[in-house]
Amino acid sequence: MTARPSPAWCVLGRGEGGRIRLVALDADGGRCGDEEIDPDGLPALVARWEREHSPRWVFSDAAAWYPRLLTAGVTLERCHDLRLIHRILRHSELVPEADALRAATAWDTPLDPHEPIRDTGATLFDLEATSPRRGAVPSDLEETLAEHSRQRAALRQAEEPARLRLLVAAESAGALIAAELQTAGIPWDVAEHDRILTAALGPRPSPGTPPSRMVSTGAEVRTALGDPLVPLDSPPKLLRALHRAGIDVPSTSQWELQQHEHPAVEPLLRYKKMSRLLTANGWTWLDEWVHEGRYRPVYVPGGVVTGRWASSGGGALQIPRQLRPALRADPGWRLISADVSQLEPRVLAAMSGDPAMIAAGAGKDLYSGIVEAGIVRTRQEAKIGVLGALYGGTTGDSGRVVPRLRQNFPAAMALVDDAAATGERGGTVTTWLGRSSPAVEESWSQAQRAANQPDAVAGQQEAARRSARERGRFTRNFVVQGTAAEWALSWMAALRLRLARFEEVPESAAAAPSGPVFSRRAHLAFFLHDEVIVHAPAEQAEAAAEAITQSADAAGRLLFPGSPIDFPLDLEISERSAEK
DNA sequence: GTTCCCCGCGCG
DNA sequence: AAAGCGCGCGGGGAAC
To answer: Per the domain annotation, does A121 fall within a domain?
Structure first.
């Protein structure tokens, strides 16, 4: 009698008559288990397989399946998100034979974020029974199995399969993390938020009326302009009023206004700050987005072409620094905030293997390292130069510093310069782990060809060149921003597994208002490109900090094995997030 | 009345 | 300060 092969994968999908099916596959794709159950029994079924076999769960779309499991208290270690991975494999230059994948158009969802999923009471099955979500992919078992099989075939045939497999794992981990972040939420101090608003704007006004300090500041502006009726919230009208008062600005943006000495400028800038705070993160935002001491934004993994996350609703990726003190740990808990110093430049140094650039960042602030190497005089110059290198800056201070970087960091600059040149030609570029930039539209190529014909008019040529340079700046940045996103996902994926091994604290020490899943031990609470915040019981704070640091080191070694590159963190343990 | 685009500004 | 990359959002106002 042969041993029953152990399940490597568990595929979930809808079966007949509204039932759910689970099919277990061994490492070679052979079926080694098959169960069917009513939707109500799904969490218990999944929990049992997770406990007994810890397989990689195959989801048509983790964003549709996992929240339901989390609500029932079930967390999973690993998954494969077919929707997200389809998008990567379909476009990746490392997949030579993608015809079968490309033919499966039902899996080709737009980059647009999901509709915000605000009502967690609705289940996957309710949603699909009524109106399918925008960007929904098939969720029936047979089609889910078929797509899984196509993706495994594509991965087998890939060049650099090891890298692509890392990307697949990291992207899928991101799908789990995004759902967990939304379930856990960010601990948010409503009273502190209200204090910040009141200090800046005056007490909360009745609905429909502006707060008192905005009214008085608006009056100051109007007095200074000598016009009692200027509508300050309408840029075109405000612009005309500014012109009438002799303030000759091309737009009403703050940096234009700052060039002028007029007495209306200072109160107007103050007014704009207040208006921004009120409309973006005022009391209305608080009412809508913070409930029971938690802010629960909708994260959209893979929502940006480069692989960065986007967000949908609530502006999770734009929380102003001014409001950071409103992030506050529950009583007896701590926030551990960590951000990577100069992530993108370090990623570029590692990708290119540029020894001088790696050395400049070794164990310290990379920009200061560039100063100490005698390449530029000030840290500010170093920063502007490096950002210019990453973004394709050609003018001003950045344009003056970039040539010096090109001289001192030839390998690093060659990497981004090559990416830009490829983009200008209409070509595709690829991140370190294998995410490729979208192909140009046929109309773009046609316009470029037309502009190169002898009969092309000057305006046409200029427009085509400008468009080519724009695309070059995009592809230049794509390779670095995209690889940085891969590093950040690997960091979080490693951290998430470390935190999952933490002991649960006693009920009495649990964070009160959060759901049971994330109220008993350290958990991720926030993510923003190169920054994480972990919410942890006070006695786990040091260990969580250690896990964050170890995970950063692990991510560096995973992506760049053997490279001397390091990724130092700014890390802080506190009850309240600092404004910085 | 609704939809769409632009502006301006917050974040990395 | 912005510039040079990537985003989301609210508001106004034009387009429909």
So the answer is: yes
Stretch A129-141: mean pLDDT: 69
Task: Kindly determine whether the C-beta of residue A276 is less than 7 Å away from any atom of nucleic acid strand B.
Answer: yes
Per-residue pLDDT at A135 exceeds 90? no
In chain A, the number of structural domains is 3
Could you tell me if A201 and A152 lie in one domain? no
Whether A122 and A198 map to the same domain: the answer is no
Q: What is the mean pLDDT of chain A?
A: 92
Q: Which chain A residues in 329-358 sit with Cβ < 7 A of strand B?
A: 339
Mean pLDDT for the stretch of residues A118-122: 36
Mean pLDDT for the stretch of residues A385-404: 93
> Residue A564, exposed/middle/buried by CB under 10 A (0-12, 13-18, 19+)?
middle
Question: What gap in Å lies between CA A459 and CA A450, rounded to an integer?
Answer: 12
Q: A384 CB contacts (<8 Å, ≥6 apart)?
A: A393, A397, A398, A401
Instruction: Answer yes or no: do A195 and A145 share one domain.
Output: no
Burial of A547 (0-12, 13-18, 19+ CB in 10 A): buried
Indicate whether A150 and A5 sit together in one domain. Answer: yes
Residue numbers of the domain that contains A397: 353-477
The verdict on residue A410 lying in a domain is yes
Q: Mean pLDDT throughout A438-459?
A: 91
What is the total residue count of chain A? 580
Q: For residue A367, is pLDDT > 60?
A: yes
The answer on A395 and A454 residing in a single domain is: yes
Residue A416 lies in a domain: yes
Cα–Cα separations (whole angstroms), residue A515 to A62, A72, A191, A349, A577: 20, 10, 21, 42, 22
- Phi first, then psi: give them for residue A336, nearest 5 degrees: -115, 110
Please check whether residue A142 is in contact with residue A172, taking contact to mean a CB–CB distance below 8 angstroms.
Answer: no
What global pTM score does this model have? 0.95
Task: Tell me the CA–C1' distance in angstroms for A112 and C8.
Answer: 12
pLDDT at position A105 over 50? yes
Closest residue, by C-alpha, to the C1' of B8: A253
Of A523, A502, A500, residue with least CA distance to A511: A523
Where does residue A237 rank: exposed (0-12), middle (13-18), buried (19+ CB within 10 A)? middle
Q: What local confidence, expressed as pLDDT, does residue A115 receive?
A: 42
B chain positions with any atom within 7 Å of a protein CB:
7-12
- What are the pLDDT digits (tens) for A500-527? 999 999 888 888 666 678 999 999 999 9
**A530 assigned to some structural domain:** no
- The yes-or-no verdict on residue A132 having pLDDT over 70 is no
